[in-house]
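STRUCTURE:
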């Protein structure tokens, strides 16, 4: 019969031998100490070697491109949720502030519409007694909006800010939350437990935390009135279709004990002006511990001239085309169709010689919104004349756009290279899970080829 191997596994350090003299003990302890020193040196050398290999390994650099509102920020959040889940969870506190600001801006927008006389906006005037009561009871939310916006922007507290106590009023009132790239806004709005020991930073952060706690208490006190307001206005506010998720969930979101869900964070709207850099240390898969560097460059027309400076040494380009925008115009130019602009932008990026060696990944995003529009009877062929006579269904429209953009990639690329195309809905985590795996694998293979490992 074989003896168990575990019975021969000696403990370390081994027990002293029987009848050990003091001299033998001293010799044994010295030998054990020397063995431990050598073992530690080996461990240290191995760790240094690992770190050196990690430093020598080329950094994975990914460029996120696409027009404004194409879903780039949501793509980043999806990637982090999939491959850096611990970091994603740790940042939920910061996203709570953004979500609260989204909700409060939507509510204040509705309140401003109610205050405008009938002559100003057709069909939206004549606030009745119930509306006037709600306006009065929800008036503290203007101050809450100022607090939340100031916390995210990093502006000093106790002084007048550009947002100030003056919330922009309709018309032209935007519900969009904007920040400048590189502001490190997440570190500004985390809870008290995240404060560091630097006196100046801690002092400001402590003020931010106190102000945010006050704002959350006010929001919690107003939650029933927010629900009542939305119940009255939900069928009339077609301008706020993008806001319906948080307004429909107002009671939960405004609650003092609220913690954002994954879907809440994915739906949070925060527009970046300029370039935002995201460094993600992979927490899963074979890439664990390796940094992936993402550059999310602003998609507005005025910001596109700065794109080229980020094109060098890029391993991959992820281009997002919002296919639901076929019936919309650019915010900056009402004469330009958004889908046409996105295709023109794609063609320009494909032509770039600086990106000749990068892998291209095309995400035809917002498929859920496209499906809803087509089902509602909005005809794709009314906006794209070359599509006339074809089925007004997602599968057919999506395939048409896919083939059109694949043809542009073939025609304008400086040299032959792979193209990966996916039809996506960035807020659908189940759908995006498979897409993200494919993207990760494609980028990893490209990086290995570029570094001659394959």
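SEQUENCE:
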């Amino acid at each position: 019969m074989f003896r168990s191997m575990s019975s021969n596994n000696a403990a370390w350090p081994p027990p002293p031998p029987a009848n050990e003299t003091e001299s033998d003990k001293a010799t044994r302890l010295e030998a054990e100490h020397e063995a431990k020193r050598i073992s530690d040196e080996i461990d240290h050398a191995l760790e240094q070697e690992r770190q050196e290999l990690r430093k020598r390994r080329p950094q994975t650099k990914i460029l996120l491109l696409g027009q404004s509102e194409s879903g780039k920020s949501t793509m980043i959040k999806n990637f982090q949720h999939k491959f850096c889940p611990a970091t994603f969870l740790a940042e939920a506190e910061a996203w709570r502030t953004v979500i609260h600001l989204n909700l409060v801006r939507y509510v204040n927008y509705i309140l401003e519409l109610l205050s405008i006389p009938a002559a100003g906006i057709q069909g939206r005037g004549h606030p009745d007694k119930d509306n006037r009561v709600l306006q009065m009871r929800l008036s503290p939310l203007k101050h809450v909006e100022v607090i939340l916006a100031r916390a995210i922007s990093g502006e000093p507290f106790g002084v007048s800010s550009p947002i100030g106590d003056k919330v922009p009023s309709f018309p032209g009132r935007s519900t969009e939350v904007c920040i400048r790239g590189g502001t490190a806004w997440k570190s500004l709005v985390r809870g008290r437990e995240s404060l560091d020991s630097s006196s100046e930073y801690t002092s400001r952060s402590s003020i931010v935390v106190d102000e945010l706690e006050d704002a959350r208490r006010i929001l919690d006190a107003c939650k029933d009135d927010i629900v009542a307001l939305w119940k009255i206005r939900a069928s009339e506010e077609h301008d706020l279709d993008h806001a319906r998720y948080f307004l429909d969930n107002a009671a939960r979101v405004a609650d003092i004990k609220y913690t954002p869900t994954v879907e809440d964070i994915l739906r949070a709207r925060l527009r970046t002006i300029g370039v935002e850099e995201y460094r993600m240390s992979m927490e899963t898969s074979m890439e664990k511990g390796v940094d992936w560097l993402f550059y999310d460059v602003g998609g507005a027309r005025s910001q596109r001239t700065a794109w080229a400076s980020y094109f060098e040494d890029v391993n991959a380009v992820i281009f997002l085309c919002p296919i639901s925008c076929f019936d919309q115009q650019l915010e900056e130019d009402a004469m330009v169709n958004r889908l046409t602009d996105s295709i023109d932008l794609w063609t320009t990026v494909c032509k770039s010689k600086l990106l000749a060696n990068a892998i291209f990944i095309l995400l035809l995003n917002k498929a859920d919104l496209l499906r809803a529009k087509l089902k509602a009877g909005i005809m794709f062929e009314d906006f794209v004349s070359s599509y006339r006579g074809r089925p007004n269904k997602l599968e057919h429209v999506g395939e048409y756009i896919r083939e059109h953009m694949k043809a542009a990639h073939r025609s304008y690329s400086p040299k032959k290279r792979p193209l990966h195309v996916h039809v996506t809905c960035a807020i659908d985590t189940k759908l995006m899970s498979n897409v993200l795996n494919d993207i990760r694998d494609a980028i990893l293979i490209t990086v290995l080829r570029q570094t001659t490992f394959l």
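REMARK: Residues 57-84+282-450 form a domain with the Rossmann fold fold (CATH 3.40.50.300).
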